[in-house]
Amino acid sequence: MKSLNIPKGVQRVLFRTLNTDRRLMWQKQFDTSYVGFLRDGAQWLKDNSDIKLVGIDYLSAAAFVDSVATHRVIFESRKLDDVEAGIYSVHCLPLRLLGAEGSPIRCILIK
């Protein structure tokens, strides 16, 4: 992460990884070998950057092999506790899953 030289003040980062080159989003089966963050990478971002939003080119920002620990680092550092009272638009971004009754979503607040 350090070698990416993410400038101070950057709050949003979208990562294009080998997941795109491998066309994982176009596969019918879930692939547990996708590229994602491990706990130590998430911890580094938390401790050394101003990033508040991370996007990645697959279904989870956390690597499958370290999913729970990585999500705990992310969630502990970026709770809604710091959101000031006010009027916001909530946008929920579902995955388009054909034949499914529901979908995982990401929600964002826009003031």
Strand order of the largest sheet: 1-2
> What spatial form do the alpha-carbon principal axes imply?
globular
Distance N terminus to C terminus? 30 Å
The level of helicity is: 10-25%
Number of domains: 1
Order of helices and strands: EHHEHEE
- For the report, how would you describe the main beta sheet? 2 strands, parallel
Strand-residue proportion = 15-25%
> On the 0-100 scale, what is the average pLDDT?
84
Unreliable spans: none
What class do helices, strands and sheet pairing give?
alpha+beta
The number of distinct helices, counting runs of at least 4 residues, comes to 3
What is the C-alpha radius of gyration, as a whole number of Å? Answer: 15 Å
